[in-house]
Write a structure and sequence with these properties.
The complex is a heterodimer of chains A (about 400) and B (about 230). Chain A contains 13 helices and twelve strands. Chain A has about 400 residues and is an alpha+beta fold. In chain A, α1 packs across α11, α2 packs across α11 and α2 packs antiparallel against α12. The two termini of chain A are about 25 Å apart. Chain B is built from seven helices and ten strands. Chain B has a six-stranded mixed sheet with strand order 6-7-8-3-9-10. A four-stranded antiparallel sheet of chain B has the order 2-1-4-5, with helices on one face. Chain B is an alpha/beta fold. Chain B is globular and about 55 Å long. In chain B, α3 packs across α4, α3 packs parallel to α5 and α5 packs parallel to α6. Helices cover about 35% and strands about 30% of the residues of chain B. The chains are: A alpha+beta (about 400), B alpha/beta (about 230). Chains A and B meet through α1, α10, α11 and α13 of A and α1, α2 and α3 of B.
Chain lengths: ~400, ~230
C-alpha cells in the first residue's frame, strides 16, 4: 500500500513530476555520456601513449629508470625472455638500449639519443614502424657501402640536413669507457619535428651493442599486454620471478604523465559534481514543495496513527521511485548515444599529436561502470536529499499540521 | 464505563504578556456511548480541547485518561499507536487521502493495524453499506460530493472500532440537508454500536441531537448539560 500511495503521489502533480523526472533523466544522460567520453578519451590517450614507445610494463636493472647509466644493463636475456614468453597476458616484448651521443653532418652538430631496437620484436611492442614518414625500417643487413642503417627523428633530420641514404657521424662513449664513433646511413625519418622522438636515432640492437661495447646486454625490456588494465598485476607477478631486476608498470615509468592525467580526470569530476548539484537542487525543490503543500495531509496521517518512521518511508519511497523511473528513461536515452560514441565516435576538425602519433578520431567508452556508476550516485543522492524533507514532515506536530481539524 | 476522564486540564499558548490560556482547569468524564457536543463561541477553546483529548497536542497541566490509559505524557510511536487503535477522527474538511479511493481510505487504517487483507476488504464492504456508500468504494475523493466524502470520513473513523470518535465541526462544510443526513448516520452508529462521539460544534442540529452539551467559555467549562 505504501508503494501504491507513493506511486500515486508521484502522478498527483504530473507536470512537476515530469519536469523533475526529465531533469533527473537529463542529468543521468549528461553524466553517463560525459563519463563515457572522459574514459574513452583517456583510454585512447593511454593506448596511444603506451603503444607509442613506453609499452605497458618495463624491466630495468636497479634504478636505471630514474638514474640511467650505460653500465646499468641486463645481461641474462635468455631467462627474461623465457619468462616473458610463458606469460600469455603478454602479447609482445622487445629489448632496448639507450645512450646519449653527439652526431654531426656536413651542415651541423646535434645531441641525440641513441636507441637500439630489435627490428622484429620492436614492432610487436611499439608503433615505431607507423611513425616512419619517409624511408623504410632499417634492415640488419646494413645499407649502402655496408654502413649501418639508422632511423632519425624529423627534428634531427632538419637540423643536420639529412635525407634518406645520407650519411652522418655519431660519437659517443662505450660501456668500457672507450670512445665510440661510426658513420650511419639514414634509412627512415621518424615522426614530426615537434614530436617526442624528434632528436632520436634508432639503430639495430646488435649494431648499437657493438658501438657501445655492451656485448649482448640491454638496458630495458618493454612489453605490451593483452589488457592494459593488467599492467600493475603483471608487473607485480614478474617482479616475484625476477627479484634481481626492477619491473615497473607504465604508471611508474611515466609517473608524471600518469599523475597529470589523473589530476585532469579529477578536474572533469568537478563538472560532473556541478551538474549533479543542479539536478539535486531540482529534486530537493520538488520534494520540499510536495511536503509543504501536503502538510495538512501529513497531519491527518499522523492523526490516524501513522508513525513518523512510516511517513519518512513514504516520502523517501516517492523520491526513490521517481528517480528510478527517471533513470530508466535516462538509460533508454543515453544507451544509444553512448553506443554510437563508443562504436563510431566522431572526427575532430584538427588532428591531435600525441607521442608522434596523430589521432583525430574521438571515441567514448561503454562499460557497466559507465552505465551504473551515475545511476548509483543519482539514486543515492536523491535518496539522501529526500531525507531532509521527510524528516521535516515526520517532525510535524499533528495539531499544527492540521490547523483547525 | 468511563471512556474519557480529564482532570484540571490546562493548555497555554504564547509567553509573558501574550500568554493565552486556551484551556483552563477543565475536568469532565464521558461514559461509553455518549453523544456529546462541546459548544461555545469562537476562541472558547473547543478545538484545543479536542486536540488534547485526541492526543494531537499535550497539556501543560492536568491529566487525560482514555480507555483507562493516561495519554498526557505519551510520546512518539506510542502515542501514534494509541491514536490508531483507540481514537477515530472526523475533520471539518473531510481530509481524506486524495490519491486513495474511498474504499482504500477506509482500509488504510486497518492496514496500519496489521489486519489481514481479506478481513479488511470484508469490513470495508460492510461499512460502506452502513454509511450508505455501497458501490462508490472505487471512487477517489475528488469524484465524491462533500456529503459522501464526509461519510467516508465517518467510515474511516469507525472502521477500526475506536473507543471514541472525535469530530470537529463535521457538518460545517455541508448544506443543512446533507448535514442532517450525516448526523442521522452517526446517531444510528452511536445507537447501534454504542460508539462514543464527541463533537466540537456550532451546529444547532448537532446540539439538538446530542445527549450532553459541554459549554466552554474562555477555556473553562461554563456549564455541563445532560439532556
Amino acid at each position: 500500500m505504501l508503494i501504491k500511495i507513493a506511486f500515486r503521489n508521484i502522478l498527483r502533480q504530473r507536470r512537476r513530476s515530469l519536469l523533475t523526472g526529465l531533469s533527473i533523466s537529463g542529468g543521468y544522460f549528461l553524466f553517463a555520456l560525459t563519463l563515457s567520453l572522459i574514459e574513452g578519451s583517456y583510454n585512447n590517450m593511454i593506448r596511444i601513449f603506451t603503444e607509442s614507445h613506453v609499452g605497458h610494463v618495463q624491466i630495468h636493472l636497479d634504478d636505471y629508470l630514474t638514474r640511467p647509466k650505460i653500465y646499468k644493463s641486463i645481461s641474462d636475456k635468455d631467462e627474461i625472455e623465457t619468462i616473458l614468453s610463458a606469460d600469455n597476458r603478454i602479447i609482445g616484448f622487445a629489448p632496448r638500449i639507450y645512450s646519449p651521443a653527439l652526431s654531426f653532418s656536413e651542415e651541423d652538430t646535434a645531441m641525440v639519443q641513441l636507441i637500439g631496437v630489435d627490428a622484429k620484436k620492436e614492432t610487436t611492442v611499439s608503433r615505431l614502424r607507423e611513425k616512419i614518414v619517409t624511408g623504410s625500417f632499417f634492415s640488419s643487413q646494413g645499407g649502402e657501402n655496408d654502413r649501418t642503417q639508422a632511423m632519425v627523428g624529423k627534428g634531427l633530420a632538419i637540423k643536420l640536413g639529412l635525407d634518406i641514404n645520407d650519411e652522418f657521424i655519431v660519437i659517443g662513449q662505450g660501456a668500457d669507457g672507450s670512445i665510440a664513433n661510426d658513420v650511419f646511413v639514414v634509412s627512415a625519418i621518424i615522426g614530426k619535428k615537434s614530436s617526442g622522438e624528434r632528436m632520436n636515432v634508432y639503430l639495430p640492437l646488435q649494431a648499437l651493442q657493438e658501438f657501445l661495447s655492451m656485448e649482448l646486454s640491454v638496458h630495458e625490456y618493454s612489453m605490451l599486454l593483452e589488457d592494459v588494465a593488467d599492467s600493475r598485476s603483471v608487473a607485480k607477478d614478474l617482479q616475484k620471478k625476477l627479484p634481481e631486476l626492477v619491473v615497473s608498470p607504465w604508471q611508474e615509468v611515466e609517473e608524471m604523465f600518469y599523475k597529470s592525467m589523473e589530476a585532469d580526470k579529477q578536474g572533469n569530476w568537478v563538472f560532473l559534481v556541478l551538474l549533479m548539484i543542479i539536478v539535486f537542487i531540482g529534486v530537493l525543490n520538488t520534494v520540499l514543495m510536495s511536503v509543504l503543500e501536503r502538510t495538512r495531509e501529513f497531519g491527518v496521517l499522523r492523526a490516524i496513527g501513522y508513525r513518523s518512521g512510516t511517513l519518512v518511508n513514504l516520502i523517501f519511497m516517492e523520491t526513490v521511485l521517481l528517480s528510478m523511473m527517471s533513470l530508466i528513461l535516462g538509460v533508454i536515452i543515453a544507451l544509444p548515444s553512448i553506443m554510437w560514441f563508443s562504436d563510431t565516435g566522431f572526427m575532430m576538425p584538427e588532428p591531435m599529436d600525441m607521442g608522434g602519433i596523430e589521432f583525430q578520431h574521438f571515441k567514448g567508452e561503454l562499460t557497466a561502470q559507465i552505465l551504473f556508476l551515475p545511476m548509483g550516485i543519482i539514486l543515492l543522492f536523491a535518496a539522501l536529499i529526500s531525507l531532509f524533507p521527510a524528516i521535516r514532515a515526520a517532525r510535524l506536530d499533528p495539531a499544527d499540521a492540521l490547523g483547525k481539524f | 464505563m468511563k471512556v474519557i476522564e480529564t482532570s484540571n486540564l490546562s493548555k497555554h499558548f504564547g509567553l509573558g504578556e501574550t500568554r493565552v490560556s486556551a484551556v483552563k482547569n477543565v475536568s469532565f468524564e464521558i461514559e461509553e456511548g455518549e453523544f456529546t457536543a462541546i459548544i461555545g463561541p469562537s476562541g472558547s477553546g473547543k478545538t484545543t480541547l479536542l486536540h488534547l483529548i485526541g492526543g494531537l497536542d499535550s497539556p501543560d497541566e492536568g491529566d487525560i485518561t482514555l480507555s483507562g490509559e493516561k495519554i498526557a505524557h505519551m510520546k512518539g510511536n506510542q502515542l501514534s499507536d494509541f491514536r490508531r487503535d483507540h481514537i477515530g477522527f472526523i475533520f471539518q474538511a473531510y481530509n481524506l487521502i486524495p490519491v486513495l479511493s474511498a474504499a482504500e481510505n477506509i482500509e488504510y487504517i486497518m492496514m496500519l493495524q496489521g489486519i489481514k487483507k481479506p478481513e479488511r476488504r470484508r469490513k470495508v464492504e460492510e461499512i460502506l453499506e452502513t454509511v450508505g456508500l455501497t458501490g462508490l468504494g472505487d471512487r477517489r475523493p475528488a469524484m465524491l460530493s462533500g456529503g459522501q466524502q464526509q461519510r467516508v470520513a465517518v467510515a474511516r473513523a469507525m472502521v477500526s472500532k475506536p473507543d471514541i470518535i472525535l469530530a470537529d465541526e463535521p457538518t460545517a462544510n455541508l448544506d443543512s440537508k446533507t448535514g442532517m443526513k450525516l448526523l442521522e448516520v452517526m446517531k444510528e452508529l452511536n445507537r447501534e454500536f454504542k460508539l462514543t462521539f464527541v463533537f466540537s460544534t456550532h451546529d444547532e442540529k448537532i446540539m439538538n441531537m446530542a445527549t450532553r452539551l459541554i459549554h466552554l467559555r474562555d477555556g473553562s467549562i461554563e456549564r455541563d448539560e445532560q439532556k
